[in-house]
Amino acid sequence: MKTKLLFAAALTALTSAPVLADGAALYAEKTCIACHGKEGKKPLTATYPKLSGQNAAYLEAQMLDIQSGTRANGSSAAMKGVMHLVSASEIKEIAQYLSKLK
Amino acid sequence: MKKFLALAFSIALIPAICTAGGPPAAIQAGIESKDYKWNAQEGEKIEALKLKGSVKDGKEGYEVCGACHLPSGAGRPDGTFPQLAGQHTTVLIKQMADIRAGLRDNPTMYPFAKELTDAQELANVSAYIESLCIPAVHGMYEGTDAAKQVADGKAMYEKECIECHKANGEGVKDKFYPVLAGQHYKYLLRQMTEIRDGHRRNANPDMVKIIKKYDNTQLVAISAYQASLSMPGSTCKAGPAAKTSKKK
Predict the structure, then answer these.
(1) Is residue B225 predicted with pLDDT exceeding 60?
(2) What is the nearest CA distance from A44 to chain B, expressed in angstroms?
């Protein structure tokens, strides 16, 4: 039983630890970087937000809303075109990654 | 009356919506208008077309494009972003100018079209993209009936598409007809469908006339065949050494 628990703990550690790295890879691979810049710090235009250090829950909610079309104001049309590239869990990882940047 | 007011209100809102996330210029009348003239030789397009692009300077300018279209120009096999490598400069300049002019609706491209305003830079980036070899691997039709689809598509392509897009899908540079070889199946299908249905508003009316009669099944077959085309000499060779096939 003990070993089973240990194993589960190790597995959790293994699967949750690389969140940052995965989020960073997703951020580049899913083309977020094209508009929001490296580490979400240098948006392409002044009307796009900086994302670095933003609250994860807020980032996740906005991404989900833009993906579903619930949010369609401002420049979100530009982003809607790429939101089919990410799943809900990938959105979560990207949000985690960005929120931890300083 | 209430209805009328609501309608008037929503009409009044349209310009605001268009400028917020809209194209750099106001939406222009395209294929849906009877006054539409395809590839009107005017504006910044003419300026960029006249300039000689520098492949070397274009490489730098392409960096921002590469975030979506990839450094190789390969785009994405799922068709979200088209393959660009080896495309004619004329086509690249026209499409970019059309997007900026509000003639081709592509919200994801708007911010980039807004940034790339200098005619010389546009010529440079286009020259660089044209100099890239066409990646050998790209999105194909993947059904189990691929062989049949490609064969059916070939028959139709050779009947009506070949005159402009040519036997290997090389297009015609000075007529602004794009290279199709190496393009992703899903992107080809989406563009053809949009051209047929009037959603790609900068389309060539001559093509619209031809493509109108094809149903969805036929467009699938034609796209499957187009994606199978390759241009000898322009396709990337295996190995990292062969980065560009054409030097300018």
Answers:
(1) yes
(2) 8
